[in-house]
Design brief:
The complex is a heterodimer. Chain A is α/β, with parallel strands linked by helices. Helix content of chain A is about 30%, strand content about 20%. Chain A has a nine-stranded mixed sheet with strand order 2-1-3-4-11-10-9-6-7. In chain A, helix 3 links the parallel strand 1 and strand 2. Chain A is globular and about 55 Å long. The N terminus of chain A is likely disordered. The N and C termini of chain B lie far apart (about 65 Å). By secondary structure, chain B is α+β, with helices and mostly antiparallel strands. In chain B, helix 1 packs across helix 4 and helix 13 runs parallel beside helix 14. The C terminus of chain B is likely disordered. Chain B is globular. Classes of the chains: A alpha/beta, B alpha+beta.
């Protein structure tokens, strides 16, 4: 899986029958593949570039890379140690993610989910890569956390980040803006069933803010987690999440209505399955969109027929579309 | 004194883990307990200020939205009260802590987390404290602690007091070479040495060793003797199955070679890439890839420590796949377990044995935690219950891998460095290979505690990520895993044709104090051995280091065909590879088998069999295993296109799973398994044949065919020194040979676990002869897959295959307390014809749903199809094709005759379907109905079974849905039919 190597840039251009001249020039002059294809100057063939960040215990990186490629992005998997080595080596942190438009924290059990799911990776992001991330997000780029990635984003304070519109601005002096007490705003904790559960669930998109989905959309995706129960700090936090339209996904039944277990597999507060930050560009969700990007991945395709545009793929397509429209 | 930080759920929030523990305590009979709360304890050694402790508590250890924390410290500053109401004296406390030397991965992670904050501590130790409220005396607390909270094999318990961390003085090891006087030893002395050192070697084997050392004129060192015992163990050498067996006057020289391997030789399938020689068998998948498959047993460790045993069992078979050829990428796991009934009364439990409910839960959790963390979907499995597994539960773990075609062969080159990668070495699991070849006794728990290993899946996941990179960069010549026997087995095996020299002091250790032979034999987990050409050493070590995996050169492969063991420059072992691998005397064992005679039941004819159907549906072996299946991630990697749970509500029992190893491709693989120890009580030959038929029918049911199917055998047997046990094994192996030839399905790998016998005084419990058959099929187009759930009202239901008077060993007899004698047989000629015809019909798109008839026969299979589809059925038995004279309707309903399928066909396809099945016995039973009612009528149109499908489903789901739920009643909303 994911073994199909991305074609080198010139070949891709050739395949599309575009800019033969540029390709020749590229091949002659440019040995460094990391540099943009000259085609990009025309912005015709420019691709959204996604980075799938992995570390010890990440295990959904291959299929996430596959989903992004299928949605038309150029995707790379990278071990976080490579970034940390650069950070320690004195590289300019602001440039670490410069080449990418979408940063994905995929699912898995980073560091074994020891202590609490996502906790160790969250601290690494907070203590070692904060500046790099703030720079990346400050440029209006996209970030997704799926399952363990969502847990990481919440525990690292990147979600829901109720009082931050631009993460770079208010952290300069070390204090948050008014209303931000500096305490964690929410968490993802153990399921009410107190065990890991894998099942397919229905979702309703209920935010007008997220760049990844249209409000009102219904989706069908699998979840697989033990610590997916979303709990906000208090009622006012929850209220603010609602008011600022940051609740992106709610678990629903097959009819689209709110329902209890097992439709809400974790006992999540208000059936919350995914949230975004105030800008809508950072998305965190417990269900796995990357596991439904091919029609045959649906559990009941042999019963109901094939869905040509699988629900999970739509999220990635929207992300890529957003990048093309706003960032290229 | 270390600082103690305690983390616990906020007082106003429910403690789910505590609730589960409370329900277990109540199940034990201690009704006085009212509430349990769980506290995670971290002991940190280091100089930390109050402010730093606050930071560690709030930003690392506690999730402050739902948890509080408290700490005490020798620094008075910042002291906080200890948790909850302990101060008020309301709770009894039991603190459980791992014994020194037992691995706890969380401790290392915590150290890292603290380092990430820029702080430093010397060490971290973790414990779990249970706060129990209620009237309980000391004795009750001790029972609760030992039966539920802790496992004495690996944990210490502190009642009403905090744990005291062990002194962490590094124990020094002073080298001295130990030789064992053997040359002059008497027979008694030889046996005594074998027993004392837990070598599990017989007198004959000890004498062979004695003769060798007499010949070379010196005494063996302890390391040499241990190496020989490990290499010659049943676990590593399969000496029974490859030895001489006298069976009914006939001499069988190498049973395995004459049955199972012989079938493969005779079939000569060109798509078999590697069979019976590597860590796993490999078959061709497509032009680019091969598929490898291995199923291992990990029975003995799981009996003592279910969680650790099962998780390391899975970890081990995953490493088999990593070490197959030059390394394969694991793409799916299978798990099959055998336990005693979970509701076995405590009074029936032999002394020194864990309760089956606890074994069951521990094993499932172990497999879950390891498999899920590795990111490998667990898509196939089975659980089988029989009380004879009470002291010897069986745990079969299998892994399938995807391997590039040009990476299937490996060869050590003399001069290659021996590179050890992965985890560090400790005293874990010493004597695992010899232990697993011995009987369990009530003292095993105490004697063999060292045989238990605890795994760390993240270490193995890191290895997996890097090994595949190193493989694709061609950085090594050969690879194998460290499993049973540790380095001794891995290096000994790899250097078999060359020779090897190892500097044991170079092996990275978890703690000091290990002697050279302990280093050599340790079964510490998550280690692999690579043969690396000298010019690649730097590159590969750097690669591993770049993702924080330790890689150390510990020696080199030579060309003198000798094994040299060195410690700090002293030779502590020197053995000829030839003697090590070929010096084992081949034993001669006697085997015979006589058919047991069971009472033939004469059950009364009844007018209504609804109750019988429901009793079979809710029997332990047939009931829904959803509670287990959902704890496994079966979707990770995105390849699963036919899931283990199928139907309108995703909860019906699928026959097999289909996985596409290459995303986006429609070429898939099917994995299935067959096992039925009940038939073995009548005749192990037919048990084995039926298991093969079952595994193959599942493949056919989901839309596969027989053109490229490989089989694996796993024999788990009782004491094969008993002639009748060995006789049963011979019969089963003969069936494997015959069936593999008939079906054209070669065996590619296998494993046996013998001596599953539990002894207490004069009584022995032998497990029932258990043969697990796993099957792997390549499927050209997963778009042809068929699930088992009934699809649309109005469709027709056919039965394909003959029903015979074969109720022996059936679940129908079982619920009435009988075994009987008429065991299901396999008519392989017809079985193959039936399967091939059905595959053709599926390929033509004529089949809407298909389910194989197995446990519980036609009635159970039809009921499962019906409620999984959320649709009713009305069937009649008049058209069931039968062989011979069948009198009772109960036989038609519940006979477990092999090679039968229920098939749903759309009305417009009927002609084409019947044409495709021309010449095959089949019968039209009835139709799928919209009304959710399940009806079966007899030949005269009288109703035999009449029940709502949700009531049937409830009967099928209830047994296991309550086992792990604890007091939290999770309301399940009923699925609505489409």
């Amino acid at each position: 899986m994911g073994q199909v190597q991305d074609l080198p840039l010139p070949k891709r251009c050739l395949q599309k029958g575009l800019c033969l001249l540029y390709c020749v020039l590229y091949c002659c002059n440019c040995k460094d593949r990391s540099k943009a294809c000259p085609c990009r100057t025309l912005n015709l063939m420019a691709k959204a570039k996604a980075l799938v960040l992995r570390t010890a215990g990440t295990n959904c990186d291959w299929e996430t890379e596959y989903a992004l490629k299928k949605a038309g992005a150029e995707a790379h998997r990278l071990h976080i140690q490579r970034l940390l080595d650069k950070a320690i080596g004195g590289s300019n942190l602001a440039t670490l993610f410069r080449d990418y438009h979408i940063l994905v924290l995929p699912g898995g059990f980073t560091y074994g989910d020891d202590i609490a799911a996502g906790r160790i990776l969250a601290n690494i992001l907070r203590f070692h890569l904060r500046e790099a991330l703030e720079h990346f997000l400050g440029e209006g780029k996209l970030m997704m956390g799926i399952c363990n990635g969502f847990q990481t984003l919440v525990k690292g304070g990147l979600l829901p980040a109720l009082y931050q519109t631009c993460p770079r601005a208010e952290r300069r002096d070390g204090t948050g803006p008014a209303g931000d007490s500096g305490l964690p705003e929410a968490t993802l904790t153990f399921n009410d069933s107190n065990r890991f559960e894998a099942r397919w669930i229905h979702l309703r998109a209920c935010s007008s803010k997220s760049v990844y989905v249209e409000e009102g959309e219904l989706l069908y995706l699998p979840v697989a987690h033990a610590e997916g129960k979303f709990v906000p700090r208090d009622d006012s936090t929850l209220q603010r999440l609602r008011d600022s339209s940051q609740i992106v996904f709610r678990y629903v039944d097959e009819g689209g209505d709110g329902a209890g277990y097992p439709h809400n597999p974790s006992g999540s507060v208000e059936d919350i399955a995914g949230i975004c930050n105030p800008t809508g560009r950072i998305l965190g969700m417990m269900p796995h969109p990357e596991r439904y990007v091919e029609p045959y991945q649906h559990p009941n395709w042999s019963r109901n027929g094939l869905n040509k545009e699988p629900d999970g793929l739509r999220l990635f397509l929207n992300a890529v579309k957003y990048v093309k429209k706003n960032l290229l | 004194m270390p600082v103690r930080i305690e983390v616990f759920q906020k007082e106003k929030l429910p403690d789910r883990l505590g609730e589960t523990v409370l329900s277990e305590i109540h199940a034990l009979g201690a009704k006085g307990a009212r509430e349990v709360r769980v506290v995670e304890v971290y002991l940190l050694e280091g100089r930390l200020s109050g402010e730093q402790l606050e930071k560690i508590g709030s930003e690392l250890l506690a999730d402050t939205i739902v948890q509080d924390f408290a700490y005490n410290s020798h620094l008075q500053r910042g002291k906080r009260p200890l948790p909850l109401s302990v101060a008020k004296g309301q709770y009894h406390t039991v603190e459980v802590v791992k014994k020194p030397g037992v691995m706890d991965p969380v401790e290392a992670t915590t150290l890292q987390g603290i380092a990430d904050m820029g702080l430093k501590v010397e060490w971290v130790k973790r414990a779990r404290k249970y706060l129990i409220r209620g009237k309980l005396n000391r004795e009750e607390l001790e029972t609760i602690a030992n039966k539920i909270l802790a496992n004495n094999t690996i944990e210490d318990v502190f009642i009403e007091t905090d744990s005291v961390p062990h002194e962490r003085k590094p124990s020094a090891y002073n080298f001295h070479k130990v030789s064992i006087p053997l040359r002059e030893a008497s027979q008694e002395r030889l046996l005594e040495i074998s027993r004392q050192r837990q070598l599990s070697l017989s007198l004959e084997e000890m004498q062979a060793i004695q003769r060798y050392y007499q010949r070379i004129g010196r005494e063996p060192t302890d390391a040499e003797l241990e190496t020989l015992a490990q290499t010659w163990s049943e676990h590593c050498m399969h000496k029974t199955l490859k030895g001489h067996i006298e069976y009914h006057g006939e001499m069988i020289d190498n049973l395995l070679g004459n049955t199972i391997m012989r079938a493969t030789r005779e079939l000569r399938k060109p798509w078999c890439v590697s069979v019976f020689q590597d860590n796993a068998g490999i078959i061709e998948f497509d032009g680019d890839y091969g598929i490898c498959f291995k199923v291992e047993t990990h029975n003995h460790p799981s009996a003592l420590e279910p969680y650790g045993g099962a998780s390391t069992g899975l970890g081990g078979v995953i490493r088999d796949i990593l070490g197959c050829g030059l390394g394969a990428r694991p793409i799916l796991n299978t798990d099959v377990f055998c336990f005693a009934r979970p509701d076995l009364p405590y009074s029936h439990l032999p002394k020194g044995v864990l309760h089956p409910r606890r074994v069951f839960k521990g094993v499932v959790q172990g497999v879950r935690d390891y498999g899920n963390r590795m990111g490998i979907p667990t898509v196939n499995g089975a659980i089988y219950f029989d009380d004879r597994y009470v002291a010897n539960p069986l745990v079969f773990c299998g892994t399938v891998g995807l391997i590039p075609r040009n990476r299937c062969k490996k060869k050590v080159v003399p001069g290659d460095a021996i590179l050890l990668v992965g985890g560090r070495t400790g005293r874990d699991g010493l004597h695992g290979a010899t232990f697993s070849s011995a009987q369990l006794t009530e003292d095993s728990e105490v004697l063999s505690g060292g045989a238990v290993q605890i795994g760390n899946p993240i270490t193995e996941k890191k290895l997996l990520d890097l090994l595949l990179v190193a493989r694709d960069r061609n950085l090594y010549h050969s690879i194998t895993d460290c499993g049973a026997g540790g380095l001794s087995s891995a290096v000994g095996e790899m250097g078999k044709d060359t020779g090897a020299e190892v500097d044991l002091e170079k092996v990275p250790l978890k703690y000091s104090g290990l002697s050279y032979w302990e280093i050599w034999l340790s079964e510490a987990q998550e280690r692999m051995v690579l043969a690396v050409p000298p010019k690649r050493i730097e590159e590969i070590v750097n690669l591993f280091r770049s993702e924080s995996v330790e890689a150390t050169v510990i020696g080199r492969f030579t060309r003198d065909k000798r094994l040299h063991l060195m410690y700090q420059g002293h030779e502590v072992g020197g053995l000829e590879m030839d003697f090590l691998h070929k010096g084992l005397p081949r034993p001669l064992k006697k085997a015979h088998w006589t058919q047991p005679q069971h009472t033939e039941p004469d059950l009364p004819r009844k007018r209504d069999y609804t109750v019988d159907l429901k009793r079979i549906l809710s029997s332990w072996n047939v009931c829904s295993k959803e509670w287990v299946i959902r704890q496994y991630d079966h979707e990770v990697q995105g390849g699963c296109v036919l899931k283990p749970l199928q139907g309108v509500a995703n909860d019906g029992p699928g026959d097999a799973c289909i996985v596409t190893p290459v995303l986006g491709s429609r070429k898939g693989i099917i994995v299935s398994c067959g096992m039925n120890p009940k038939y073995g009580d009548i005749d192990p030959y037919h048990m084995a044949a039926s298991a093969i038929d079952e595994a193959l029918r599942q493949i056919i049911s989901v839309g596969g065919d027989l053109s490229r199917v490989a089989l694996l055998d796993n024999f788990s047997w009782g004491n094969t020194d008993l002639p009748d046990q060995l006789g049963a094994l011979v019969r089963a192996a003969l069936a494997c040979y015959h069936m593999a030839l008939y079906f054209g399905t070669p065996f590619i790998s296998g494993k046996d676990s013998l001596n599953n016998e539990f002894r207490r005084g004069d009584t022995a419990i032998n497990i029932p002869p258990t043969l697990l058959i796993s099957a792997l099929a390549v499927m050209e187009d997963v778009g042809r897959a068929v699930s088992m759930d009934a699809k649309e009202p109005g469709n027709l239901i056919y039965i394909v295959g003959l029903t015979k008077e074969e109720l022996g060993g059936s679940h129908y007899y079982s619920i009435h307390g009988h075994i009987g004698n008429s065991v299901p047989r396999v008519d392989a000629h017809w079985a193959r014809k039936t399967m091939e015809a059905l595959s053709r019909a599926v390929r033509k798109g004529l089949v809407r749903a298909c389910h194989d008839c197995s446990e519980g026969g036609l009635a159970v299979a039809a009921a499962e199809m019906s409620f999984a589809g959320g649709l009713g059925m009305e069937l009649g038995l008049g058209a069931v094709p039968i062989e011979g004279d069948i009198k009772g309707e109960d036989t038609r309903l519940f006979s477990e005759s092999n090679s039968r399928f229920l098939v749903e066909v759309r009305p417009q396809m009927v002609g084409a379907f019947e044409k495709a099945l021309k010449g095959i016995p089949y019968g039209l039973l009835g139709r799928v109905k919209k009304e959710p009612v399940f009806v079966i009528k007899d030949r005269h149109g009288r109703t035999l079974i009449h029940e709502g499908i949700y009531s049937l489903k409830e009967a099928w789901q209830s047994p296991l849905s309550t086992i792990g739920a604890g007091p939290v009643r999770l309301r399940r909303t009923r699925a609505v039919g489409s």
